[in-house]
């Protein structure tokens, strides 16, 4: 028996019913905040643990192998059915995969030349740009506070920043901004994590092709085994958490929440790599934490925003079988 669906005079569910369903599906800003923090922590921890492989595989080789392992793991775990995707969905997933690959490859190149906290702070300019284009003026206040924190974290008045590392970090920032916008769009159109399971193998394929010269002659089974473990820490777990968080937060709020990443990078650098921040950097950490908390209060997506609950129903694979 088909499920009964109560609709109003225009064929849509009444606003109260849609609101209740949306709240159950989207959750709240607090849940999105926790997912974003867990994602950023996992990213920085995985990055710090992968640094020792730079000497063997290089920055590009390490990033490419991580992407390949992450894409393979997601493909095996989720096993998306492509017949559920429209051509537009597949194109969006492919572009998202390219943005994901660029974000990780450029960031690895930046980390090879810059301190972890500095590279993370510069990369945050991408999410910050997303938050600045949000519709709410209140969010610009938090974005401005986060920008001040980034300045304190990078301490540009000291000079001596590696030019190539700076360019790579800014390129990673641009890819991160595109990743945020594309992830929410794919998450709103594709049910579950299937969109991520398609985009990540694309990122892995691109990363492998670009990193192939760095991996040639240096790849060992031991390195592959280590990278499979690290791929779970990053990028598989972070991308899943971010994919789910962007169903609960606006892109502007999510972009501002990413201001916490330089602070988390400093903490991971202190605990894992022995990098001790100064007083100015500590002040920057305080500013970005306040900005992240402020964004959480005003960043929940409303049930009436386009989301997966209102997305077109997926096509049936059985219907296409002759």
Detail the topology: elements first, then pairings.
Blueprint: H1 15-26, H2 29-50, H3 54-78, H4 87-111, H5 116-123, H6 125-132, H7 137-154, H8 163-189, H9 194-215, H10 221-245, H11 251-257, H12 260-272, H13 279-298
Structure notes:
- This protein is mostly helical.
- 72% of the residues lie in helices and 0% in strands.
- It contains 13 helices and no strands.
- It has helices at 15-26, 29-50, 54-78, 87-111, 116-123, 125-132, 137-154, 163-189, 194-215, 221-245, 251-257, 260-272, 279-298.
- Helix 5 (116-123) packs antiparallel against helix 12 (260-272).
- The two termini are 25 Å apart.
- The relative contact order is 0.21.
- Residues 1-26, 304-316 and 318-322 have low confidence and may be disordered.
In short:
The protein has about 325 residues and is mostly helical. It has 13 helices and no strands.
């Amino acid at each position: 028996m088909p499920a009964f669906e109560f609709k109003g005079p225009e064929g849509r569910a009444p606003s109260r019913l849609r609101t209740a369903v949306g709240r159950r599906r989207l959750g709240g800003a607090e849940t999105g905040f926790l997912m974003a923090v867990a994602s950023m922590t996992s990213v920085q921890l995985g990055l710090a643990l992968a640094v020792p492989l730079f000497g063997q595989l290089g920055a590009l080789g390490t990033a490419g192998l991580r992407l390949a392992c992450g894409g393979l793991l997601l493909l095996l775990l989720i096993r998306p059915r492509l017949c559920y995707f429209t051509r537009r969905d597949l194109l969006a997933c492919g572009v998202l995969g390219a943005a994901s690959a660029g974000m990780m490859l450029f960031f690895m190149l930046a980390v090879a030349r810059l301190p972890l906290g500095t590279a993370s702070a510069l990369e945050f300019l991408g999410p910050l740009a997303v938050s600045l284009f949000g519709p709410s003026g209140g969010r610009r206040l938090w974005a401005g506070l986060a920008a001040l924190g980034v300045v304190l974290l990078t301490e540009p008045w000291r000079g001596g920043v590696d030019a190539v590392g700076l360019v790579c970090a800014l390129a990673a920032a641009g890819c991160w901004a595109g990743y945020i916008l594309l992830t929410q769009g794919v998450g709103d159109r594709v049910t579950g994590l299937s969109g991520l399971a398609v985009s990540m193998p694309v990122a892995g394929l691109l990363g492998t092709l670009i990193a192939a010269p760095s991996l040639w002659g240096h790849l060992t089974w031991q390195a592959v085994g280590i990278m499979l473990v690290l791929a779970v820490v990053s990028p598989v777990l972070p991308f899943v958490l971010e994919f789910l968080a962007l169903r609960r937060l606006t892109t502007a709020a999510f972009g501002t929440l990413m201001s916490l990443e330089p602070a988390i990078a400093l903490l991971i650098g202190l605990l894992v790599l022995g990098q001790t921040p100064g007083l100015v950097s500590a002040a920057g950490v305080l500013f970005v934490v306040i900005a992240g908390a402020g964004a959480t209060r005003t960043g929940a997506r409303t049930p009436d925003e386009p989301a997966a609950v209102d997305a077109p129903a997926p096509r049936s694979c059985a219907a296409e079988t002759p």
